[in-house]
Automatic annotation (TrEMBL):
Residues 55-250 form the ABC transmembrane type-1 domain. This is Amino acid ABC transporter permease. CDD domains: TM_PBP2. Its main location: membrane. Belongs to the binding-protein-dependent transport system permease family. Keywords: Amino-acid transport, Cell membrane, Membrane, Transmembrane, Transmembrane helix, Transport. Signal peptide: none annotated. GO terms for biological process: amino acid transport. Gene3D superfamilies: MetI-like. GO terms for molecular function: transmembrane transporter activity. It comes from the Bacteria. GO terms for cellular component: ATP-binding cassette (ABC) transporter complex. Pfam families: BPD_transp_1.
Amino acid sequence: MTARQRRRLARGLQYAVLVAVVALLAAAADWEQIAASFFQLDIAADMFPAVWTSFWNTIVYTVLAFAFGMVVGVPIALMRVSAFGPYRWFATAYVEVFRGLPALLVLFLVGFGVPQAFPGIQYPGGVYGQVAIGLGLTSSAYIAESVRAGIQAVPRGQVEAARSLGMSHTRTMVTVVLPQALRIVVPPLTNELVMLTKDSSLVFVLGVTTATMELSKFARNELTDTANATPLLVGGLLYLLLTIPLGLLARRLENREDRR
């Protein structure tokens, strides 16, 4: 048997095992119970149009947190590669702390810890501001590391060429290095956007209202009211409506970057 024939046989066996596993699971499943628990069309229909408010809030929370993460993360990345020691130490500590803390804990600290430590403090936008800061702090640490990697991926020769033309270090970084670094890290930044979309489900810890709740909270409330899992399925499908296009965009950007 040739090597090609062995590969074809191994591939065929893998397909056969996969088909057998799927067939066994399909035969063992209680499809009537699954339909009754997850596919009640009348319950799904009753979720609309109210669910669109939560869907929109999920988008708004994601965009605000990502914007905050970019505004904070890019300067932190620049500090991480700075020749000035205290900048590097601060940026390193910032990244390690906010990458190490769970996003849920950061949200809780922003929503309840800071107001207790500083009585009378008011976040702009209320819950929206709390979410932007809470999720944005965690996001900014990951964005900072992505941007730092992008900066270090820019060929050193371009920096030397810019300096030889009389550009200062700051101007070289802002006009030559950073634009290229941001282009390099667009795919991981898109993945971070996907992660933020899912992390928006943690907003419930802040105590949201009907007007400010996001998809997962809305789905859980509907689950409690209907005693049926159909709302969870609808909520999951709406999350996929957001995350799958972002995932496809990230892969497309990665492929385009690989071809350069």
